[in-house]
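Batch manifest, entry 17 of 40.
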Amino acid sequence: METAFTPVLSFGGGLAIGLGAVLLMLGLGRIFGATGILSGAVFFENREELSWRLALMVGMILAPGLIFVTTGEMPAINVPISPAMIVVGGVIVGLGASLGSGCTSGHGVCGLSRLSVRSLVAVPTFMATAAITVFVIRHVLGG
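Output type: structure tokens
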């Protein structure tokens, strides 16, 4: 299994995520953590909180359509596992985000930039776990 090398697209995506995180912090004083945003939309306490969270989630969902309108083709997405495994993976990520007091976007993008000690521990843990998982799947299990 080979992973495509896309430095320009990756850099552009990183800039867009960083800009979104900065604008959310400047505009609303909130952290751009996708799991926290989703959780706050599901278990909202007031309408003000709900509106910006829903707007951000709608933007995330509509982004591939904007790419289609701009480029004329949808982003290529290849998920070589079953829908059941996607659900299992989502539950595991959700539990991990709960146990880790945040998700990779919250810790990695916002936490590190604020020099959060919790994020300085969480992000290397995420990265090491990801590297071990890829190694096991590709080289031990032969996936």
